[in-house]
Amino acid sequence: MDIARLKSSFARVVMHGDEVPLHFYSDLFLKHPQTRDMFPVSMQAQRTHLVAALVSIVSSVDDPDALTAFVRDLGRDHRKFGTLAEHYDAVGESLLATFAYFCGDAWDAGLEADWRAAYQLIASVMIAAAREDEKHNPAYWTATVVGRERKAFDISVLTVQPEPRLEYLPGQSVAIESPARPKLWRYYSMANAPRADGTVDFHIRLIDGGAVSMALTTHAAEGTELRIGPPVGTLQLDCASGREILMVAGSTGLAPLKAMIEQLAGLPMPPAVQLFFGARAPDGLYDLPSLEKIAAEHRWLTVAPVVSAERHGGPTGSLTDAVMRSGSWSGHDAYLAGPTEMVQDCAARLAASGLPAAQIHVEDFGWSEP
Amino acid sequence: MTTDAWYDEQQRLTPDQLQTVSFPLTRWARHGYEEEPVREFLAQVQAEMVRLINERASLWQEVQRLRRRILGTSNGNDAVLFAKDDAHIHAVRILSSAQRTADRYVADAQAYSGRLTEEARVRRDEIMSQAQQHADMLLEEARSRARAAAVAAIDTDGLPPQTEQERRAVQAELAYLRTFSEVYRQHLKIYTEDVLRTIEDWESKERAATREIAPPHEVPARGPTSPGSR
C-alpha cells in the first residue's frame, strides 16, 4: 500500500470542501435508499462529522495505536445508529466512487486498489469493535423520563430511568436522542454518581434555536422514551493521587463535577474539594441550594458561587479571575467543565501559574451542539 | 440587503450587486460602516466564491470526461454522450442540490426558532426588571412611610398623649398605616398576578406557534428525497 500516494490523493479530494461529503451521501442514498432513514433531515452537521473523521483517520495513519483506538471507538459508537456489517460495504463503494470522481485523471486502478484495501482494513476494525461491544452492551439504552424540574428560566434537570441499567463512571457523558427530533444526537454528562435505583440526572440548558435542548426541556414529558448511547469521555476522578481538589464549573458544566462530588461523598476519606460554580446572572446558579446542602453535610467540600455580571453579593468578574484570585493551586488536581472558552482560558491560566498539565483534567462541551 | 440570498438559485450574488451595495453608516461619528452588515456581506461573497470554485472544478472534470468520450468513440456512429455513469452523476447532482435545499429549510427553521426564544428571553428580562423596579419603588415608599411613623412615635414618646385630640391623632395615624399596608399588599398582589398572567400568555402563545410550525411527531423523516423548490 502506497501510503504517501493515498495521502496526496486524499489532500486533492478534500480540497473540494463540502462538495465531497455531499457527493458521497447522494451517491450512497441513490445506490442504497434504505440508508437515508439512518440520518437526520438536515445533513449539514453530518457532512462536517464525516470529513472530520476521515481527516483524523488519514492524519493518524503513521500512528497505528492512535488510529486503532480512534477507529474502534468509531465502530462502537456507530452501533447506536443501527449500523450493521453490511452497511460498511455500501459505504465503502460510495466512498471509492466519490474519491474517484474528485481525483479525476489522477485516479487509476492502483490507487483504487490501495484505497479499497485501506477502507477494508478500517471497516474490519470498526466491525470487530462493534461485535466485541455487542457481547457486553446494548446498541443503545431506552431511557424513560421520570422527572423534569425547571431550575432556572433556561435550565432544567431531567431525570431518566435507563433500561437496562447504565454502568458509567462519574464525569462521563452519553449522546441523547429525543423522539421529537429523530436522528439528532447530543452529548450530555451524567450529573449524579450511579444510584441504587439506576436513575440518572442530566442538566439541560435551553439553547436559542437548539432543536434537541428544546425537545429535552419543553417536549420531554414524564414517560417520554429517549435513547441514549454508550458512556464516553475521559474526565474521571484520580482517586489515588491524594491531592486536594479544585473544581471549576461554568453553567451546566456543573453536571459531571457534581457526579464526581457525589462519588467523593461515598469514599471513606475524601480530600478537600473547593468548587467554583460560575454563571452570568444569579439565577444561572441553578443548582446552588443542592450544592450547599451537600457542603453542609460534608466538611471537605467548599462551594464558591461566582456571578460574572450584574449585582450580586458574591465575588464578581470572570470565573477564572475568581479562581486565580483565591490562592495557589499548584498542589491540587484541577477538574474543569463548561463552555469551551471558559475551560480553555482557565486551563491556560492554571498551567501558567505552575500547575502541571497532568493535574489539569478538562471536560469541554464545545463539541456538543445545541 | 438580505442575508439569506446566497443559497437561492434565483438570487445569486451578481457583479452588479457588488458595485451598488451600500452599508448603513455608524450612528455616532459617521466615519465608517456598521461592522455586522459588512461581515454578513463578506460571508455572502465568500460563500459565492466557494460555490463558483467548486462549480468550475466540477465543470472542468465534466469537460475532461466528455472530451475523453468523444476521442474514444470518434470512429463509431453510436457515440453515446450520456452513458449509465453520466445518468448516475447527474442524479447525484440533483439529489445533492435537493439536500442543500433541505439543509437550508432546516437551518432557517432553526434560526427562526432561535429568534423566537431570544425574543422571549429579552421579554422575560424586561418583565423581570420592570417588576424589580416596581418592587423597589413600593419597598422604598413603604420604608419612608415607616420611617416617618417611627419619627412621629419618637416625637410623642415619653410624654403620653395628653389631650384627647392627640390620642385620636395617633390612632388615626395607626389606622392610616394599617390601611396603607393593606392597600400596598393588595396592589403588589395584583401587579404580581398581572405579571404572571403576561408570562403565561406568552408561554401559551409561544407553544401554539411552535405547534403550528412543527408538530413534533410529524416531522417528515424523508424530506430530502422530495426535491424542494420555491
Detailed description of the structure:
The complex is a heterodimer of chains A (370) and B (230). Chain A has 370 residues and is of the alpha/beta class. Chain A folds into 3 domains: 3-134, Globin-like; 141-228, Elongation Factor Tu (Ef-tu), domain 3; 244-367, Rossmann fold (3-Layer(aba) Sandwich). Chain A is built from 11 helices and 11 strands. Chain A has helices at residues 3-14, 19-31, 44-59, 64-77, 85-103, 109-134, 211-217, 254-265, 288-297, 319-325, 340-352; strands at residues 141-152, 155-163, 173-177, 185-189, 200-205, 225-228, 244-250, 273-279, 301-307, 332-338, 360-364. In chain A, strand 1 and strand 2 form a beta hairpin. In chain A, helix 2 (19-31) crosses helix 5, helix 4 (64-77) crosses helix 6 (109-134) and helix 10 (319-325) packs parallel to helix 11 (340-352). The longest helix of chain A is centred in the first third of the chain and has 26 residues, at 109-134. Chain A is globular, with a radius of gyration of 23 Å. The relative contact order of chain A is 0.10. Mean pLDDT of chain A is 89; it is low at 366-370. Chain B has 230 residues and is mainly alpha-helical. Chain B is 73% helix and 0% strand. Chain B has 4 helices and no strands. In chain B, helix 3 (84-156) packs antiparallel against helix 4. The two termini of chain B are 20 Å apart. The model of chain B is unreliable at 1-9 and 215-230 (pLDDT under 50).
